[in-house]
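Practice set, problem 2.
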Amino acid sequence: MFGLRPDGKRLKGIDPIQKIVPHIMNHRYDAQNMNHYDCRCEPIDDFIKEEQEKGVSFRYMHIMMAGLVRIIATYPRLNRFVINGRIFKRNSINISFVVKKGLSATASDSLIKLEFTGHESIYEVKEKIDKAVLENAHLDANNGTDKLARVLTFTPNCVIKLLVGTIKLLDKHGMLPKFIIDLSPFHTSAFITNLKSIKGPSVFHHLYDFGTTGIFFSMGKESLEPVVEKGQIVVGKVMPVDIVLDERFCDGFYFVNALNVLKKMYANPSCLRDRLEELPEDVEVDNAGSHKARKNK
């Protein structure tokens, strides 16, 4: 309440135009910016092969998520969110994703949210992902999110509607208990979906209006495409990547620069081997045009 939340800190020293935009575009689906790019797979395949020779097994999901964590850490404005017309900076980096408990239409899903500091190397990101998948992939696994969903739905439909409406109201005014926010995969820096793993195309996935998700990252099935290399048209292995962003907390110039750096990371995954020792500051601009630097811990 009054701009106080357990998962973030309200930003007051921001550009006046940026401050008013959330009141013009009240919902995330009003403010969705969509970006597509074709990610070359050869550098990723080379990295996976190199690590495999060392006895370390990487998958595309490890590399994609490691890059996403690193770009949010190095471009901290990407870790902001909008709720109730206010812009907040998040207290930590969180990535949500879905684990399918079996490759069948009847297999259930588990929603997982991982927390990162931004310092992690690609090996540490891989370790967190593998541990979470191992704990949630078997059929009888139930994490905290699954249990919360079960409790909410163990009632008649009218009661579910009332409970969810109450949660939304409490969240809007910063009164939602921290333990619910911690369990909610919708209160996250980014949501990532790996459609490549089920041989599906990437999609421009909508941003949920519930929670605080500001980025949705989708990776699809790779294919062989004509590409230009050194002035020659050759056949390249390409993976489609679609990113949807809430434009209200991040201007286009900042996002484009961040996306260009992310592309370079995927073109050279070895840059993610080392930990990020120093985290950049989240710089605000006050109404007078001066800059205030807030340490992003």
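Problem 2, part (b): a different protein.
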Amino acid sequence: MNHTHRLRRLGGSLLTLALGLALHTGASAQDTAAIRKNLAERLPNFPAIEEISKTPMPGLFEVRVNGTDLLYTDAEGNFLIQGMLIDTKARVNLTEERTDKLTAIAYKDLPFKDAFTIVKGNGKRKLAVFEDPNCGYCKKFERDLAKIDNVTVHVFLYPILSKDSADKSKAIWCAKDKAKAFTDWMVKDVPPPAANCDTAAVDRNVEFGKKNRINGTPTMIFVDGTRVPGAIPPEQIDKRLSEAKQPG
């Protein structure tokens, strides 16, 4: 289990001052050098530090590793904290907010050539979703999609649950009508017909998802870059579709 998973599991926890952190006001070059030096010397197996930045909490610094994993330390690297940093006055989970920004995917940068589309109504609203054909929550999402109109859904087959998931994904990708084969399976439990074709797109989706830390299905990505893991009620999907604005 990586740091991000553990951080999210500790979502209700608060960082406290009880660790005896000294109060500092800035992320000076001296502080950054001391943190890097001391953590490297004391924790030889510690991942390479990619960024150190000051947090709103005096004396506390964010240490970013593995792309999007966040830990916290004092100015000398004497203490290392794994948990959620919460602004109690603003009632904001700062760790979660920061992680969301780090894992955001620009909608325009998605590899749409490796997806197929399902268009409903005028198709003006846009949504991308990564789905595993054997994912129960994905099937629920597809059934809920019947309640949503005027949307174009770009479906990225993302088989991460089992070999059978990959087999089904490749059969769907090779179908003459990908959208129909996918919907028939997800909504009606009609297995996709066996077929052969170039399925490199499915493999690329898995590589893309792992690189961008798409760790579960379904994962929805809206035009504003917002990522929503897991199935959410159709009314929430509809609301997000209407509110999401693509960056100019």
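Answer key, part (b): The longest helix spans residues 29-42. Confidence is low (pLDDT under 50) at residues 1-26.
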